[in-house]
Specification:
Distance between the termini: 29 Å
Number of helices: 7
Bound molecules: glutathione
Largest sheet: 4 strands, mixed
Length: 202
Amino acid sequence: MQLYYVPGACSLAPHIAIREAGLDVKLNKVAFGAERRTEDGRDFYSVNPQGAVPTLELDSGDVLTENAVLLQYIAAQAPNAGLAPSDGMARWRLLEALNFIATELHKSFSPLFRNPAPEVREAQIKLIQGRFKLLEGKLGDKAYLMGDSFTVADAYAFVMFFWSRNFQIDLSATPKLTAYFQRVMARPAVQQTLKEEGLPTS
Ligand SMILES: N[C@@H](CCC(=O)N[C@@H](CS)C(=O)NCC(=O)O)C(=O)O
């Protein structure tokens, strides 16, 4: 399979999941500029008409989009890696977490990427901090969002932490969450992924 990504974008989540799962992947870095080009010089819109990463091209030629779906697909390719509980209430909790991160957290960051006016930025950051408080409530005293084991929900949540540092969002009101993000960052597969994308590893 081939993962189309932009360093440090939300495509970091499936990249981490692939490394955690130990799956083979071809990485294809997309350049976002006036045009969107794949690393091998193709028009990215011809791969994904939305022009968004992450995009996963399967060996069959099928193209999958939507982060929460890619993450479940990747987890399903390596069931022994335990990246997604497949039955019982745990399965629904994972889907709940993925949807929460996609719709309540990820999309709350979007305005910050568009250089908003200071008052818009401030309001958006307050909103994100409130969402982080809710995420911390879901985490509770567990090591990872789903319990003792790392899942694809943790890979996705970690991207939000990464962005919060880039946007200098104060996380001091959510200390358990901050410690959890550091725990995720220390994982060998996460370190490997950060290095592969040329991103800071600490
Ligand atoms: N609905 C998509 C959205 C993905 C998304 O927002 N990707 C961003 C990078 S983090 C992107 O490629 N934005 C460029 C664009 O949408 O034009 C998903 O959940 O995967």
